[in-house]
Design a protein that fits this description.
The complex is a heterodimer. By secondary structure, chain A is mostly beta strands. Helices cover about 0% and strands about 50% of the residues of chain A. Classes of the chains: A mainly beta, B mainly beta. The interface of A and B includes residues 101 and 105 of A.
Chain lengths: ~110, ~120
Amino acid sequence: NAGVTQTPKFQVLKTGQSMTLQCAQDMNHNSMYWYRQDPGMGLRLIYYSASEGTTDKGEVPNGYNVSRLNKREFSLRLESAAPSQTSVYFCASSDLGGDGQPQHFGDGTRLSIL
Amino acid sequence: DQQVKQNSPSLSVQEGRISILNCDYTNSMFDYFLWYKKYPAEGPTFLISISSIKDKNEDGRFTVFLNKSAKHLSLHIVPSQPGDSAVYFCAASEGLSGGGADGLTFGKGTHLIIQP
């Protein structure tokens, strides 16, 4: 019963390097999300995908791109990493409709950019 | 401009007593509210939610109260247990799908410490 799986769990990059964070969910959810959490802050939405084939910007999209590969997988790419992107990244998924459906989160990817 | 505010960074409560965590919001379009619990090095775990058509929702030891006119919600934990020690995030969304469209807006969190 994996839920939302994120890889890798930890990564250290140099400024200017690129990287893709992977996320997969096994709950057959329609919607998927990427958040970042900085020290002393709440989670902030980077991008989301309401359904397969669609993606939209969230609150802090600059410097990131996303791909909804299929219903299960939603990846986040940093094309040219910057120290300001040092953060913990969380992927989440949820289903639509009904009386409210909570988002389910992975355990995060801790990313340091030197 | 923070739309969801948790003004207490930390709260210490004795085991067995009631824990009350507070949350204020400014966006009147929010109509679904959630509480998440987070342990270190783990992702947030859903705890309880409430839609704007209700003023109370209860699940075991956890009760969430919503005061729409004051734009305020609170989470009550009774009785508090050592395993409740964690960071609690208040979150809100527009749309009854609970974030199925636009994602969630989070507060900064309150670190709850349950003292034996």
